[in-house]
Hints:
By secondary structure, this protein is an alpha+beta fold. It folds into three domains: 219 residues, BirA Bifunctional Protein, domain 2 (2-Layer Sandwich), CATH 3.30.930; 50 residues; 92 residues, Rossmann fold (3-Layer(aba) Sandwich). The chain has 14 helices and 23 strands. Strands 3-9-10-16-13-12-11 form a seven-stranded mixed sheet, with helices on both faces. It has a five-stranded mixed sheet with strand order 20-19-21-22-23, sandwiched between helices. A three-stranded antiparallel sheet has the order 5-4-6. Bound molecules: adenosine-5'-triphosphate. Adenosine-5'-triphosphate (ATP) binds next to strand 10, strand 13, strand 16 and helix 10.
Amino acid sequence: MAKADLMDKIVSLAKRRGFIFQSSEIYGGLNGCYDYGPLGVELLRNIKEAWWRDMTLREDIEGLDSSILMHPRVWEASGHVENFTDPMVDCKECKARFKADQLEESECGNRAYKGRKAIKCQEEGKFTEARNFNLMFKTYLGSVEDNSNTVYLRPETAQGIYVNFLNVKESSRQRIPFGIAQLGKAFRNEINTKNFLFRTREFEQMEMQYFINPEEDEKWFEYWKEDRINWYKKYGMKKNKMKITVHDKLAHYAKSAVDIEYEFPFGWGEIEGIHNRTDYDLKRHTEYSGKKIEYFDDLTKQRYIPFVIETSAGASRSLMAFLVDSYDEEEVIKENSDGSKSSEIRTVLRLHSYFAPVKAAVFPLVNRDGMQDIAHNITEDLRKYFRVFYDDSGAVGRRYRRQDECGTPFCFTVDSQTLDEGTVTIRERDSMAQERVNKDNLKEVLLARI
Ligand code: ATP
């Protein structure tokens, strides 16, 4: 399948099945913003929940939920006011706006020159001089709109962690090494948003900052690099679609940095960054707030400003990577009612069962002989523990196909044998294998398989 087609198919499935909608669609949409529909919100929550559990159900990591609006000095200390900029150019002819360092990859905004690269327009002198554009969204605190009340929507969750380092250390009585994990919304006024959820203006991050003794920075950097790539593998991401890229150009705060990249249909793209941020952030917050942020190790009697190893993942970008990774089309042979055979294409989302928005669907084979009542009862029982979907419309084959597209890992079907001997079929999404199980312990059956 052509890569462009694949992306179109995923975007279309995401809308058709209720994963992702364009924001404010009835008003023509809002660029770079998306809404998560009934299945999308479940998938996103499951990804975030998996990350949260894996990060915080351990001795050495505490959770945090800091506010989106923070004191404006935070962003001066962090360097965002000064440095969080992209060079921007405008086309004098078609008025499109580009990131000046991406002209080779960007397409000219003029429909009349479809497919033409923006770099060509630059060569022809159509662009303004590059100027720096700060990516932070500004707003005002309180009712007076003047500069002294300016606050920013946070462009990353990390700073909320640094400014709470002392609070968390003291209240949780953690000793170094320890980490603080936080997930939540971040906002960046990106010059160009593109590639669906890859680069949006509002998105969610899953960040963990690990505070360490500066002498151990290399050891912990390696540890978190391994740990994070294994996390994606644990939830089924294909190994050959992931790679680690080492940054040769480092950000002003970093001593070393790598990206975990995924091969999207439009090319390789970062899904998570792992950075050795040294003591840059804590030092800067000490300097700007006047409050000394340091650590005293009462065993070794060492006093120091901790180094930070950061793992910074995008929840929405990861969701997109998992969607792409799990999308599959395969040819299946189906038996027609007259006994003949024909082939059809089955579209299936092979999502990890922990991520799947709906864990099981329940069908009565036909709508008679009390099969619907039994299927309803099974649905209600299972719903106490899992997200379950009941469906009695259309041929059972079509119902399976619908669930395949939603990534539902298991389907239970009530048939005439259920009436005679109390068993139902369980059909597994990936292999399509079916077996019979007792209808009275489906909760255990599901638990064992998820
Ligand atoms: P990029 O170079 O792609 O803009 P970045 O290096 O600025 O990314 P970080 O600041 O390291 O990204 O952010 C950490 C993670 O947050 C990224 O790996 C990505 O998953 C996510 N992220 C960053 N910007 C966006 C965005 N505009 N839309 C969606 N996710 C984003």
